[in-house]
Amino acid sequence: MSAGVSAVSSLPVSIRGLSKTYRVGFFLNKQVKALQGLDLEIAPGQVYGLLGPNGAGKSTTIKILMGLVRASQGQALLFGEPPDRPHVRRQVGFLPENPSLYEYLTGREFVTLAGRIFGMSGHDLDQRVERVLGEVGMGRASDLQIRRYSKGMVQRTALAQALISGPRLLVLDEPTSGLDPLGRRQMRDIILAERAKGTTILFCTHIISDVESLCDRVVVLVGGRRVQEGSVQELVSAKAPSVEMVVHGLPLEQLQSLGFAYEQAQQLDSRVLLRVPDADSHPLLQAVLNKGGRVSSVQPARFSLEDLFLDAMKQAGGQTVGGEIQ
Ligand SMILES: Nc1ncnc2c1ncn2[C@@H]1O[C@H](COP(=O)(O)OP(=O)(O)OP(=O)(O)O)[C@@H](O)[C@H]1O
């Protein structure tokens, strides 16, 4: 085996040129391009976040990786092999978006069933079920039928089934959806505990604070294409430097007529907050003072992942929702 092949096979996830076109419409004569040539590699032990607006192709990527949807083009491999191989699937725990569980089973029965499907049995399985139900905060409610559960309880039980086999790779589609603030905190703690064990984690979400607090690396998808990729720190610090200035004594309209390309211009009570590229900060300061305005603060702007995400969507030509329809 060549070095290149063994490197790929050790990667929990490797995606090359992945495209997916869905056929839609009454006569299936229209196409939605959900993914357009996506490349992605996830190294062992990383927590990897898939970010993107509605319809960006996040769930489609995850479904292809889980063997639930066939790619139109390209390749998606788990541990160097196609995702539908049983010994590959055994190493993966999956939490789908909107999990739909067997409603007439109790949480404990459902998680036990999931364990049996993974080939576990006996005392080991019972102990493991107890442990994962405890980890997701479902110890007490686990003997109630799932049809009696709230959305958050279903989500926690679905996570318990994803964890039951002690997977090497966890794939979580919107893991904090439906959870209350305590549930979100617990989900974050579980993700961090899994990372500490060396589990590789891929998850998609709209919740940027979750990405900032959990992810080693992030990919931003827009319209089925990768528009940003890197660590949160890399992405945020790669942004061109800007300056924020707080101005008193001049109305927003007058400041807007000065001819600067503001990245942000916002009225704050009687003050105005302006954000401009670093190179414009001195000319702007001069212009404000010449017009009789006062400046109470000038400081380097701090960019968050949210700013970056909104920028990425703008750069992608305003196509923010859904795949490309033809
Ligand atoms: N089964 C399907 N048939 C037809 N079109 C589909 C199907 N599944 C997804 N799509 C379309 O593919 C595009 C990508 O959808 P996908 O669910 O992957 O996006 P997403 O990023 O997960 O969105 P969200 O954040 O809203 O969950 C969308 O335009 C969606 O309408």
TrEMBL record:
In terms of InterPro entries, this protein maps to: AAA+_ATPase (IPR003593), ABC_transporter-like_ATP-bd (IPR003439), P-loop_NTPase (IPR027417)
Lineage, top-rank taxon, reads Bacteria
GO MF terms listed in the record are: ATP binding; ATP hydrolysis activity
Keywords for the protein's UniProt record, in alphabetical order: ATP-binding, Nucleotide-binding, Transport
Q: Which Pfam families match?
A: ABC_tran
ABC transporter domain segment(s):
13-248
Gene3D superfamilies according to UniProt: P-loop containing nucleotide triphosphate hydrolases
What protein family does this chain belong to?
Belongs to the ABC transporter superfamily.
**Listed name of the protein:** ABC transporter
- Organism encoding this protein: Corallococcus macrosporus DSM 14697
